[in-house]
C-alpha cells in the first residue's frame, strides 16, 4: 500500500498496487491549479484509491474534470476526468515517498513555458499521451 496526503495532514489517502503511468504535465490548467510550471502525476485504477482521512474540496476546472485539493492548506491532490472514469490521477509529490515514482513521460508540451526544461529520456507528447 502506498499512502500520501496534503501539506497540513488534514487529508490522507491510500492507493494499492502500482500506478498505470507516471507523467509530468505542462498544460495551462495544471500550471494554474498548482501555481507551478509543471505537475507530476501518477495514474491508478479508481478502485485502488481511497481517502483515509478528511474530505478534499472539489473544483470543476473544465467540462468533465474535477480537481480535488485540501480546503485547509490548498495542496492539489487529484484529477478526475469523466472521459477516463476508471482511473484517477494523484499528484506525485503528495505521496509519502514520491521518489519511488519517477515520471516516464511529459505531456502537453505545446503548453510548456519556454524557460521550463524538458526531461531528458522521457517520452514526449505535444498533447495528451492518450491520443
How would you explain this protein's 3D organization?
- The chain has a single domain, classed as glutathione-dependent formaldehyde- activating enzyme (gfa) (Alpha-Beta Complex), CATH 3.90.1590.
- It has an 8-stranded mixed beta sheet with strand order 6-7-8-9-4-3-10-11, with helices on one face.
- The N and C termini lie far apart (30 Å).
- It is globular and about 40 Å long.
- The protein has 131 residues and is mainly β.
- It has one helix at residues 28-34, and strands at 2-5, 12-15, 21-25, 39-45, 49-53, 57-62, 65-69, 76-81, 87-91, 105-107, 123-124.
Task: Summarize this structure as a short list of keywords or feature phrases.
mainly beta; glutathione-dependent formaldehyde- activating enzyme (gfa); globular; 8-stranded mixed sheet; 5% helix; 40% strand; 3-stranded antiparallel sheet; 131 residues
Amino acid at each position: 500500500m502506498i499512502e500520501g496526503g496534503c501539506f497540513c495532514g488534514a487529508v490522507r489517502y491510500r492507493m494499492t498496487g502500482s500506478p498505470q503511468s507516471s507523467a509530468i504535465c505542462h498544460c495551462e490548467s495544471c500550471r494554474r491549479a498548482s501555481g507551478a510550471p509543471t505537475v507530476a502525476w501518477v495514474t491508478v485504477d479508481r478502485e485502488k484509491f481511497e481517502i483515509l482521512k478528511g474530505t478534499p474540496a472539489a473544483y470543476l476546472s473544465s467540462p468533465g474534470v474535477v480537481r480535488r485539493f485540501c480546503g485547509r492548506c490548498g495542496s492539489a491532490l487529484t484529477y478526475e476526468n469523466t472521459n477516463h472514469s476508471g482511473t484517477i490521477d494523484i499528484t506525485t509529490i503528495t505521496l509519502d515517498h514520491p521518489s519511488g515514482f519517477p515520471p516516464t513521460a511529459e505531456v502537453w508540451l505545446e503548453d510548456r513555458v519556454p524557460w521550463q526544461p524538458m526531461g531528458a529520456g522521457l517520452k514526449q507528447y505535444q498533447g495528451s499521451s492518450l491520443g
